[in-house]
Amino acid sequence: MDRFDVVVIGGGPGGYVAAIRAAQLKLRTALIERETVGGICLNWGCIPSKSLLRSAEILDLFHRAGEFGFRVDVQNADLEPAVIRSRQVVERTVEGVRFLLRKNGVEVFSGSGFLAAPDEVEIRPDGQRLLARNVVLATGCRPRQLPGMSIDGTRVMTSREALALSRTPASIVIIGGGPVGCEFAYLYRAYGATVTLVEQLSHLLPSEDEEISSALERSFKKRGITVATGARVIELMPQDGSVAAYIEERGERRTLQAERALVGIGVQGNSDDLGLESLGVRTEQSYVLVDGGMATNVPSIYAIGDLTGPPMLAHVASAQGVTAVETIAGLAPPPLIPERMPKATYCQPEVGSVGLTEAEARQRFTDVSVGRFPFRANGRAAAIGEPDGLVKVVCDGATDAILGVHMIGHGVTELIAEASLAIETGAPSPLLGRMVHAHPTLSEALKEAALAVHGGAINAWQLN
Fold first, then answer.
1. Cis peptide before 206 (omega within 30 of 0)
2. Among 73, 353, 394, 397, who pairs with 369 as Cys (CB 3.0-4.6 Å)?
3. Of 424, 392, 414, 388, which is closest to residue 405 (Cα–Cα)?
4. What is the dihedral of CA 164, 167, 51, 66, to 10 degrees?
5. What phi and psi, each to the nearest 5 degrees, are found at residue 377?
6. pLDDT of residue 386 exceeding 60
């Protein structure tokens, strides 16, 4: 049997990054992937969805062409070319990952990995076995079947089927107001569908700051998206040529009728069929339990990404993959702090955040200061015709330490990295406010929001 220093099971954004980093550290590395390297994120998630959202954004601009001095008559918006382009983007990106794995000397095996022993991995179905000094589990998660929501892949879809749908449905009900639901709501509305977005909790994007979530709801309603919050789906019933969604909203029951439904909630970790039970690897509700170095309770076995539970984000999986293999290599990387992981939602307006929400900060700290700056006061936002949005900085009032940054507006998913750096390095709000930002840029809104914590914003009247 071949012997490896590291065997990674699963080739998604956590697994392939872990494998490459392990190879960089001169560890002989194998990667086992049952489908295509890149995993769900690259093949049926992050990358194709962002490609489609770019098409929707361009379509939006065509509809607004008059604002910019153009006469454009958009008679038909065809989703199929956008889907074709998204698959081409995926193919190019997958080939890039294959190239990187090959150039770094990672040996890639096709199949499903199974732990026959703590140091022995069987590749199914062919039965080949690899000896492994260390194993990194990166098998991700999958949609969970929910009561009353029978997903047939046609009338009732998950995001995977939706990403391959080449014709815009006339109407669609989207179950779940998280990032997946909000992104598809924006996409289908841009292409002319009648969209109803249903969220059981009181706001869209319920893990985001409530002020930002409320702003997104207002924007969606202006776009003609029907938003039903505080609404529970009792049953989805496929019918002849349509779907009936039976919902309960604030104590009242009603029926929503649409051509299709998309279910964007409910996942479970892919911890089954890995041999974990026989080895005594601890799990909880389908997720593998790990410590700060991504190690399980069984020596030499590590787990990363969605398999370990929230936050279920591709960039978090990648960071965890690096942490795991650097721990294996004895480098003692600092543990990742979940609340410092940035979040991004790519509908329009975009939403980006990192750190504590205002409500969370007020629960933990006795003195909390908040600075806000509206995009309508930002010169670049006005120039590009995207004045809707807000940057919000939440600080410890006693120390000026930045506890959280929350943004909604055009391009904010690119701006959140600076906020992440500020929180990670412990930069206080006055320091961020003193940083010179190029003018005119959207990033100036973050500087101004930091200044606004102490009433020092220059280009807008204090909003606090």
1. no
2. 397
3. 392
4. -170
5. -100, 5
6. yes
Question: What angle separates helix 444-452 from helix 412-425, to the nearest 10 degrees?
Answer: 50
Q: Cβ distance 183 to 47 under 8 Å?
A: no
- Please determine, for residue 462, whether its predicted confidence score (pLDDT) is greater than 70: no
Catalytic residues: 439
Please state, in angstroms and rounded to a whole number, the distance separating the CA atoms of residues 32 and 452.
50
- CB count within 10 Å of CB 201 equals 15
User: Residue 400 has which token pair?
Assistant: 């000026």
Buried residues in 403-415 as b, exposed as e (16+ CB within 10 A): bbbbbbbbbbbeb
Residue 54: CB atoms within 10 A of its CB come to: 15
Write down all domains in the chain, each with its CATH number in brackets.
2-143+268-338 (3.50.50.60), 156-265 (3.50.50.60), 349-452 (3.30.390.30)
Residue 320's SS3 state is helix
- pTM here is 0.95
Residue 167: count other Cβ atoms within 10 Å of its Cβ.
10
Band (pLDDT 50/70/90 cuts) for residue 223 is very high
DSSP string, 44-62: HSHHHHHHHHHHHHHHHHH
Q: Write down the mean pLDDT value for the chain.
A: 95
Mean pLDDT for the stretch of residues 331-340: 94
Q: What is the DSSP string of 331-345?
A: --PPPP-GGGS-EEE
